[in-house]
Amino acid sequence: MGVTLKDIAAEAGVSLMTVSNVVNGKQARVSAATRERIMRIVKERGYVPSASARSLAARSSRLVGLLVPAVGESSLTIDPHTVEVVGMLERELRRLDYHLMLRGISRHGEITEALRSWNLDGAVLLGFNDVVIDRLTAADVGGVALVAMDSYSENPLALEVRSDDFGGAELATRHLVGLGHRRIAFAGPAFSATGVVRRRFEGYRKVLAEHGIGFDPDLVSEVETTHADGLAYGRRLPREHPDVTAVFTTADILAIGLIEGLAAAGRSVPGDVSVVGYDNADLAAYVTPKLTTVAQDLPGKAAEAVRLMMDRLAGRDRPAQAVSLDVALIERGTAGPPPAR
Amino acid sequence: MGVTLKDIAAEAGVSLMTVSNVVNGKQARVSAATRERIMRIVKERGYVPSASARSLAARSSRLVGLLVPAVGESSLTIDPHTVEVVGMLERELRRLDYHLMLRGISRHGEITEALRSWNLDGAVLLGFNDVVIDRLTAADVGGVALVAMDSYSENPLALEVRSDDFGGAELATRHLVGLGHRRIAFAGPAFSATGVVRRRFEGYRKVLAEHGIGFDPDLVSEVETTHADGLAYGRRLPREHPDVTAVFTTADILAIGLIEGLAAAGRSVPGDVSVVGYDNADLAAYVTPKLTTVAQDLPGKAAEAVRLMMDRLAGRDRPAQAVSLDVALIERGTAGPPPAR
DNA sequence: CCGCCAAGGTATAGCGCTAAACCTAGCATG
DNA sequence: CATGCTAGGTTTAGCGCTATACCTTGGCGG
């Protein structure tokens, strides 16, 4: 069916290797005239190299895995703010003539399997918690450039790209403190899920301490990153902690649920309670009032991931194996001064 | 580095083909005792088959492409409601032991290249307009099972999965008419982009006609599927057509922008103007008031796409090569009776 | 005039796997 | 006893490509 190197070689009256060299741009070995003749035939015949044959012979696949957790039989958990990163990764990699394989991972061993089976040159780990990354051993990932996103494992096998979560939390909390809030709650998922939440929590605590505000563990709530859980939290918050005037959350979707819950409990935002989200999802700008939130540098994240991976593939590792990207506070309508007593 | 069939064969004292047969579950050829011995060694040594070698030798890759338009150097255009479909596709395919390759397509020839280079068994075309699909010729796709999503090309080379766009529009428009609206505008992107919008438009027209409501082309506006364009449209609508009391839009995000624009122009939803969206995106439930919209069967879409593809791969094509999935109207808070005069 | 080198190739040997044809007991059958 | 069949393998011949070693020229310095 397909045109192969051999066909081209026969038509051009040269050896197969010469065609291979031309197709792969190995300039040194071929005269300009031959090269042009071959290229013309390649175009004419619509020759497309076989990636599997290449990968087999060259022991490099120019394939990068995009590994995403898949809980059991359920669908992939690509949250909306991750989608953008995926799109950007694909573009960057395509520019470098790499391809992306999307793979859900439900058991730990599947990471290894995917890497080995497809002979992946690299992989991006999206949304895995640090434990999974720490469990990867050198035996698992021989020679594969692994980039973990938003992890705080210090596993030297994995390159890491993340936002400055500590700094983002500082920004948000400082903003609330600056507006005059003193009873500021923290809502986010369990720490164990990923170091990200812990870093944000630590940023929050640090700012409280800086301003001499006593830390009250009661104001820290474990809330999943969903609208429903945010809603439930918002409903009970005024009852359980009527003195809370502001909430820092670790996700926009949670914040939006929270605001709806507060409304259901008769509290207005930002009149009675201020809310700050995290991620600056598109949707943050679509709700009313528009959400004050912390924005991550998504394009930067994708670009850094690719850069780190390419550096490792090229063997030029640099000292900094973990990159932390800047964040910014986006002030919109959900954070204001606390209500006058 | 990797363990190969040969290693296992040597250790088990059998030929390489026997191991291959065991690994691939070709029961007939191997005794149970041998099979178990081999499986044990396979487990012990952590053998993982090489996908490239398989794909080369077997002329089938168990790889499915997910082809998405990429405009020039820009990032992939996976809209949020598409992401869910992607996740579901991945899961379904993984269950069947297929893998997914995500690939942005910026030039027409790239579809062919991707198919051939990786020896894809199948591909899902996401978000391409009908023209692109019509341009695919048999030469391009020899033997590849192509499934186009949301297209209305009648190209026999492509299997097609879509929602009942005509019916969805009927549902929405009928709902508005039922509430008493007579001046109902239609807002969506240009028809040329995809047959989807045209089908929705036709559904809208049909219901108007059914109820003896004259069709006014002035009430049809070309608005891109973005918040910004919806906003702009909402701002100018009351000025240009003060008598319009309802708008049917082809996308939630557009509808949400529209509502904000109407508010800016001093019109309230649904008090002054009713709005119906399309897609039932998550965000439709997060805005205030919650958006009345048409829901598509996303899981069904993914499942049908995989089913059609597997049927074609197995050679059991059925007559219906295009599947149309049911839609449902989700009544929430943005559609009500027209204001009393 | 010889040795040597660079330029421009070619020949060979796989990469790891599978499809297909082939082999060989051992046993039942007519 | 020749025949055929089946179970349980083995052998052979690639799939399309790349790495590596090798082979020719012709030109040039010594």
Global mean pLDDT of chain A:
93
Which pair of protein chains has the largest interface, and what are the residue counts? A-B, 55 and 55 residues
The amount of beta strand of chain A, in percent, is 15-25%
CATH superfamily placement of the largest domain in chain A:
Response regulator
Task: Please trace the helix and strand order of chain A, writing H or E for each element.
Answer: HHHHEHEHEHEEHEHEHEHEEHEE
Order of adjacent strands in the largest pleated sheet of chain A: 2-1-3-4-5-11
- The total of helices of chain A stands at 12
CATH class of the largest domain in chain A: Alpha Beta
Could you list the spans of chain A in which at least 5 consecutive residues all have pLDDT below 50?
none
Second-tier CATH architecture of the largest domain in chain A = 3-Layer(aba) Sandwich
Largest sheet of chain A: 6 strands, parallel
| Terminus-to-terminus distance of chain A | 80 Å
Structural class call of chain A reads alpha/beta
Brief description of this entry?
Chains A, B: Residues 3-58 form the HTH lacI-type domain. The structure is a homodimer of 341-residue chains. The first copy, chain A, is an alpha/beta fold.
List keywords for this structure.
transcription regulation (chains A, B); transcription cis-regulatory region binding (chains A, B); elongated; Rossmann fold; 434 Repressor (Amino-terminal Domain); DNA-binding; 341 residues; six-stranded parallel beta sheet; Peripla_BP_I (chains A, B); 12 helices; 12 strands; homodimer; alpha/beta; 3 domains
